[in-house]
Structure formats: structure tokens, C-alpha cells
Amino acid sequence: MNDTRLPYILRINPLFIIFGALFVVIIPLLIWANFAEIEQKSTTRGIVIAADKTQKIQAPIDGVVDVIMVKEGVKVKKGDILVVLEKEQNQASLDAAASKVASLKAKLRRLKTEVRGDELTYPANFIQSNYQEFIVTQKNLFLLRKKSLEDETLSLVSALTLKEEELVSNQKLVESGDIGRIKP
After folding, report:
1. Which residues pair with 85 in a beta bridge?
2. Is 53 within the bounds of a domain?
3. Residue burial 30-52, b: 16+ Cβ < 10 Å; e: rest
4. Residue ending a domain, choose from 89, 121, 142
5. For the whole model, what pTM was predicted?
6. Is residue 74 assigned to a domain?
7. 142: burial class by Cβ within 10 Å (0-12, 13-18, 19+)?
């Protein structure tokens, strides 16, 4: 009765467990991959092959093709419109560049005015009317920085006054001999 093997413990090879788990995971993925459709967009440059030689077609700007104006096999000549690009992307790039230019012009004027110590003014039509918020922001920033400099100046003047008073007081004590005297 020294049998240490219990009847309810199963001895299973670990390879069966590993391969079984892989089977349970991989088979459903393969089935899904067989039936699933994945939409994908990609952008690439192309080459149009002419009858006698290869011609590269390049646009001055990148974009997404909206309409193809020519059919395959149609002869084209220089200046023909081949494709029309979507305008949204190009318009967004144009708007971003115009916004950056307006922002930098307003900031540059503010900084030059701060360096000279003048009052900040912007002439009429300095930047486009739809970017006037940049002028308002720069004026507010100018006032905040001016106030900050004034506060810092007042603080330094106050500290200087205190140090001058301390110096005068210490000079009087040195002259009277109350500072630097060792008492026996």
C-alpha cells in the first residue's frame, strides 16, 4: 500500500498543452484574416510611360488626387491637366502658413518695441483682418511684460534703498567703534 500515485492525477505531456493553446489562438486568427477586409490608403509617386520614352510627372505640391482628367491610352500634350488634387489639404497648409506669418510679424514688432522702449502700436492693415487676435495677444503680452519690468524695477529700487540705509548705519557704527570692538 505504498503506492504514491493517486488515481485522479493525469499525466499530460506539456507539448500537448502548448500546441493546443497555439491551435486555439492561431486558427481563429487565420479564419478572421481570410474573411476580413482591411482598407488602406497609400500615397506614392508615379511614372507615366509614353509611347516613345518614359516621362516623369511631378506636381509642385503634394496632395490627394480628387479627379483624374485623362483616360488610359489618351495622348496628352504639354500643359494638359492630368489630375485635380483635393483643395482641403492645400488650403489648410496655406491657412497655417498665413497664420504663422501674421503671428511672427506681430511678435517681431512687439519685441522691437520692447527693445526700443517705445509704446506698442500697430498700423492699420498691418496683418490680415482675420488674424487681428494676434495683435490683441501681443498687446496684452506687451503690457504684462511692461508691468513685470516695472514691478521688478520697484523691487530692485526698494532693495537698493534698504541696502544703502544698512550701509549708512554700519558706517556710523564703525566710526563710533561699536562694530569690531572686542569686549574683554
Report:
1. 65
2. yes
3. eeeeeeeeeeeeeeeeeeeeeee
4. 89
5. 0.48
6. yes
7. middle
Domain extent for 166: 99-176
3-state SS assignment for residue 54: strand
C-alpha cell at 172: 556710523
Does the CA dihedral 14-20-22-24 come out positive or negative? negative
Residues 84 and 67: beta-carbon distance below 8 Å:
yes
- 108 and 162: one domain? yes
Q: Which helix (H) or strand (E) holds 157?
A: helix 132-176
Grid cell locating 49: 510611360
- Split into its structural domains, the chain has a count of 2
The confidence score (pLDDT) of residue 76 equals: 84
| Distance, CA of 62 to CA of 43 (rounded, Å) | 9
How far is it, in rounded angstroms, from Cα 138 to Cα 75?
A: 56
Closest CA to 50 of 80, 28, 94: 80
Give per-10-residue mean pLDDT for the chain (184 aa).
58 82 88 80 63 61 80 84 81 86 90 88 83 88 91 94 92 78 57
Question: Is there a domain that residue 27 lies in?
Answer: no
Q: Is residue 77 part of a domain?
A: yes
